[in-house]
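Need residues for this backbone.
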């Protein structure tokens, strides 16, 4: 279960404070994969960050039933550039309470999955964007979460790596749920059980995915 209770979220802009949501309340039933859809600028990514705990509301609160929620899958912008890929993975393991044999297992998994060779022990700021994406996706797949956050459909690396990434992600989705931000409605239909439609500062829950998509397409 994911619940937003009287959530208000705003950002400062050169023209003053912009409110994304005001006093927003909704509850998503437990065990459902969620598609976040809506026009550009409607607050989809903001809502995802609030649910994932990467951003905090100005007021109100976001509650879950204790389910674990990932960082955005494939996010590569948060690595420490002066540290190696290996040390970045170890750092994340420590943040999530992993040590000893479990940490070694995760480091070995990411090293094998990312397949960036000796660069795994080089500073991340020497990586190409593709190498950073490989490292990030491998790190995302090394941890088991109840919900995986996906901001837009994943496009990681070359064709061979994308096939490997898609297969790994499909295996995770069999036992976990997703919170997906996308403009690709076929992905929403394929992966999601419910839809949250964001528009004009409001979010509407559709338990019928097709009805949610149809409403969005007719805005």
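Answer:
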């Amino acid at each position: 279960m994911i619940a937003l209770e009287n959530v208000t979220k705003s950002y400062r802009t050169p023209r003053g404070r912009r409110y994304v949501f005001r006093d927003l309340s909704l509850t998503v039933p437990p065990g459902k994969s969620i598609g976040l859809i809506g026009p550009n600028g409607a607050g989809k990514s903001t809502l995802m960050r609030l649910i994932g705990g990467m951003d905090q509301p100005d007021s109100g609160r976001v509650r879950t039933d204790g389910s674990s929620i990932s960082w955005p899958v494939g996010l590569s912008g948060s690595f420490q550039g002066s540290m190696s890929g290996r040390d970045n993975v170890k750092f994340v393991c420590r943040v999530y309470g992993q040590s000893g044999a479990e940490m070694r297992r995760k480091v070995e998994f990411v090293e094998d999955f990312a397949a960036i060779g000796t660069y795994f022990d080089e500073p991340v700021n020497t990586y190409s964007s593709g190498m950073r994406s490989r490292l990030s996706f491998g790190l995302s797949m090394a941890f088991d979460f109840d919900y995986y956050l996906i901001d837009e459909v994943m496009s990681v690396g070359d064709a061979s790596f994308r096939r490997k990434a898609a297969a790994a992600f499909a295996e995770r989705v069999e036992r976990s749920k997703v919170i997906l931000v996308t403009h690709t409605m076929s992905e929403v239909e394929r992966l999601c059980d419910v839809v949250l439609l964001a528009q004009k500062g409001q979010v509407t829950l559709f338990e019928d995915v097709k009805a949610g998509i149809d409403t969005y397409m007719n805005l």
